[in-house]
Specification:
Layout: E1 2-3, E2 7-18, E3 24-33, E4 38-43, E5 48-53, H1 64-73, E6 81-87, H2 97-112, H3 119-129, E7 142-146, E8 150-153, E9 162-166, H4 174-179, H5 190-194, H6 201-204, H7 210-216, H8 218-229, E10 234-237, E11 244-248, H9 254-257, E12 263-267
Parallel strand pairs: 5-6
Antiparallel strand pairs: 1-4, 2-3, 3-7, 4-6, 7-8, 9-11, 9-12, 10-11
Helix pairs in contact: 1-2, 2-3, 7-8
Length: 268
Amino acid sequence: MVSFPGCKINLGLHILRRRPDGFHDLDTCFYPLPWSDVLEWLPADTLSFASTGLPIPGAEEDNLCLKAYHLLRREHSLPPAQGHLHKIVPMGAGLGGGSADGAFTLRSLNELFSLNLSISQLTEYARQLGSDCACFLLNGAARGTGRGDHLEPLNLQLRGYYLVLVTPPVHVSTAQAYAGVTPRQPDEALTLTLARPLREWKDVLVNDFEPTVFARFPELAAIKEKMYANGALYASMSGSGSSIFGIFPDEVDREKNFPSLPGWSGWL
């Protein structure tokens, strides 16, 4: 069974408070992008997993696809399977690419082995894998609260706009991103901000990670400013970085305007 785990951008990200469990309460909008990996799971005699494409750092036991398999196997009669991931979406770029791979593994194994788990049940498993895994089980924009794992579908469509995504070779660790952030309540609720015309987002839709991350990596701030200089209606960093995206009214030549920087561009 072949599937295509995508990725997401964050439209606004408020860090509200630090929780007793060490995490933070967030308020953000996850918006899916059609830039995807390729994932295949097949029945097999023994469990195996391989990857091609971009390298996947970390130990095998930390791989979210394998974690998803073992999570389901603990509570269900799950036969051995063979998995193969062709990695296209960069990891550690604020796009949730690894989380999508884990979520799509849950969905694929559920269908492949007829586990008959509902979306609600799969969502509970996804929340155990990671804070933003569950959003990839939905088919559209969603508001994420709590750690980002409590989801509410949003009636938000950006169809007809052109998006340019740049993924510079900068790694921003979660610890670095949170280091200089002071949790706060926003001046306006995120849902109200998103309800404004897109042309108004520039001055009111914010990612609370940007001041800290841009101070440490000014090249990211420069990319955001270049998005605006080239006509973006809205530009922002996604998640805790380092990806920067711009939303444009017309098609933009990413290779010309952002040479040597990997990423994706296309109509939403």
